[in-house]
Amino acid sequence: MSDPVQPPAKTRRFWLNVGEVVGVLALMIAAVNLWQAHREHAAVEKHAAAQASFVLTGQAEAGGRRIALRALKPEQAIQSQRYVFPSNVLDHAMEVSAAAPQIDIDWIAAGLGRALNASHAKGDGEARLPVGVITTYVEDGETRTDRSLYQIGYAWRARFLQGRQLTLQGVSLVQRDVAGDLQVQVNRRWASR
User: Fold this and answer.
1) Strand order from edge to edge, sheet including 77-84
2) Which of 7, 12, 109, 124 is deepest in the core (most CB within 10 A)?
3) What is the pTM of this model?
4) Cα–Cα distance between 149 and 131 in angstroms, integer?
5) Is the distance from CB of 69 to CB of 58 less than 8 angstroms?
6) Are 55 and 72 in contact (CB under 8 A)?
7) How far apart are CA 147 and CA 3, in angstroms?
8) pLDDT at 109
9) Residue 98: its pLDDT value, please?
10) Does residue 158 have a pLDDT over 70?
11) If residue 156 lies in a helix (H) or strand (E), which one and from where to where?
12) Which residues contact residue 183 at a Cβ distance below 8 angstroms, ignoring those fewer than 6 apart?
């Protein structure tokens, strides 16, 4: 008996149809998009952490005659500050260097007195005054700028035949990263009080 002759084995070719090619390409594009989105998200978080970390704290000193300001984080060194008050309280900005970042009652006492008279404030009381603060500070060797709205707590006491005595109580953060004209924002907040 003789073996029947076997036909030569067919060589199998691997071909992808159009649907499979499109599927593989779509998977590759989705992976690249996911990787880019992750990188962008990480960059945004890093930038936000760097920019969103400056906050002022303040403590009344000298019997409420001034508020001494400092950065919440001790590694942030304040270089200068510009304070923008409501226009009818103080018609120009005040600038202070890093030597003594502070808000002084003498800057705003006359304007607050006029505002209290205009509102017919009687007796003793407390209120809040908006202030825009532009701070230049150094952190990790980089100079940065923060533009924020704060409010100053202040109080007044009626003194017989001596008018009102004004004292400052402290500051609190209202809004960070204020865009546009800071004076307009402060005036708007003051008008809505």
Assistant:
1) 94-97, 77-84, 125-139, 142-159, 163-175
2) 109
3) 0.70
4) 6
5) yes
6) yes
7) 94
8) 94
9) 67
10) yes
11) strand 142-159
12) 84, 87, 132
